[in-house]
Structures are given as structure tokens and as C-alpha cells.
User: Fold this.
Amino acid sequence: MKRLWLLFSQTVTVLVAAYFVVATLQPDWIRRGTSLSSAGIALIEAPPASVAQPASGSLSGAARKAAPAVVSINTSKAAVRHPRSDDPWFQFFFGDQGDQQAQAGLGSGVIISPDGYILTNNHVVEGADEIEVTLTDSRHARARVIGTDPETDLAILKVELDKLPVIVLGNSDALAVGDRVLAIGNPFGVGQTVTSGIVSALGRTQLGINTFENFIQTDAAINPGNSGGALVDVNGNLLGINTAIYSRSGGSMGIGFAIPVSTAKMVLDGIVKDGQVTRGWIGVEPSELSPELAETFGVKATEGVIVTGVLQDGPGAKAGIRPGDVIVRVAGTSTNTVPTLLSTVAALKPDIAATFEVQRAGRMLELKVTPGLRPVARRPARR
Assistant:
């Protein structure tokens, strides 16, 4: 009996020691349900499954699961004094301008990793001197900007806090029109608010909001302050980052837009791993193939995107692309609209040649184009 007890105690001691070593050196291994992204970020992803509907009509379970990971973001920008405000002649003509008032902003964000990474919109934190994050448990923390991607209007923040609530990442590619969703954020600064609706449309583009657009449209109420908040499914899994609304009054009119979580993950990995999102670029000016442009360039094509300009010495020019060419396919993907062409080219890896199928003067050509690195875009701040 003593021998069995000794064996049992030794086994328990070894297991406890092993757990302590793993917890100290590789804590991600014991985080339940976590996986590592390509940039080494610990994420919690929902298992592959179709979107399930709750057994009852209540969505309180989804709200309880997701809400703790949605934070309020307050930004401030220091007052700026006019550079010539001390000039007597300037004061004579324009008066004493003094200091401009400090600016404050309000938005939302989503904690997506136990390491403290937060997803939000670029326009929420753009130009901010200080960023403060408030959790639902009333904890406050200063956040630092890890990086931004103006072309998708996403930003990555990080806070240094323990025991953070983390949202589970869902599968935005499995969404269907009509699926029920919740929008969680901090509208108008009144406090965290949950609204419900359905997916109204998918793949919305050409809205003039971002360079790369692939929005989820929803009728869940999204108001000022909701930007950067979470769009979740009925299981509380993150589907998108609430970004913009269509409104004539400034308030919700039932047309809101969210960036899919699939796009957000790509931006997150790019920023954390490389400091920026790496996208392909060929240096051409594309336009929709209209009858007027087709007649101007003498084109007989009925589908594709017409090239109206080519940057001298750019990747496209070096590969032989000319104004008037109609790009029909890129690496086997049909390109019938400008947003599709931009997204397809952006997905190409720089310095790796890809096949472009081009129609020119009634005949099809295959050109090998080696994309370059897309220049980083700078947008004016949005209000």
C-alpha cells in the first residue's frame, strides 16, 4: 500500500511540474481553444460549422459571450497653436487666434487575443495623441497603435492588461443573406449597446468608403461610436468590424456596413508580422468597361476591366500592358469589375509573376506580369 501511495504521489508531482514548465514557457499550449496565426498571435477560433440558430428566440447568450470583449475607445488630440499667432501683423489682420481646442473622439474596439491585441477602425484612432480603452469591467488602459491599414480602414491596438476577455472568431465566408446578427458597440457614448438584425447583403463594393471593399451589409442599428465594434453571429462569434452607415440624418437608417473578419485577420497578420499589409501592385489605371470607353479605345470586348492609363516603368508597362487593353482574368480569376481587379491584384505576392489574360484589338493575349509592392496609401481623416 505504501508503495502504491509513493508511486501515486510521484506521478502527481511530475505532472504538476510539467504543467508549470509548459505554463511558463509555452502558455499558448494550454489556452483552451486557441490557435496561432501566421504572425504568431494567439486567437480563439470557432470550430468549422454552419451558422446555427438559437433554440429559443433570445439572443442573450450571444450577447453575454461577445460583449465583454468589446471595448470603448476614447481618443484625444492635443490643441495646436497657429504657427503665426505671435506675429503682430497676423494678429492685426486675423485677431488673436490662440490655441485651437483639443479634439476628442469616441469609438469601439474588439479584443481578439489574450496578448492584448484589439481590432478597430483606422478612422477611430487616426491622428490621435492618446488612446484610452475601457473594458466592460470598468478597467482602463492606455493603448498603443501597432499599425494601421487605411485602405481597409482597420487598425491594430495593444493594451497591457491581464485576464482579458477574448472574442471567438467566426467564419465570415460561411455567412448567408438572412442570417441573424448582433452589433455591439458604444453609440454616442451612452455605454455598451447591443442591437440585432440580419445580414442584408454580402460583398458590397463601390461605396467609396475604402480602397478595398467587401462589406457585410446589415440592418442592425449602427450609430456614431459603434465604429470598430463587433458584428457577431447568434453564437457570439465575431463576423465583422462595424465600420460605416448610410444615413441622411447622421443616425441609423438600417443600412450599416462591416468589414469581414477574414479581411481583419489578414490585416492583423500583415501588420504584426511585417509592419504593414503586403499587397501586389501593377501600376495601371483601370476603369469599368462602358460602351463609351469601348468605343473610344476601339474595343470589342463585352466583359473585363479596361486599362485607361499605364504608369511608365511600372510593373504593368514592363510586362507589355497598354492603354485600351481589357484585363479579363488574373491568375485564373475573372475580373469583371474594378474592385475585383484591385482585390485580385492586391492578393498577388510581389516579385512573383502571374498570368494576365488580356484582350487587345480583338485577340486574346497572355502576359506574365511581375507585381511590385503596392505603395502605402494615406487617407484624409474621416469625421
About this structure: The chain has two domains: 34-49+60-75+104-274, 280-373.
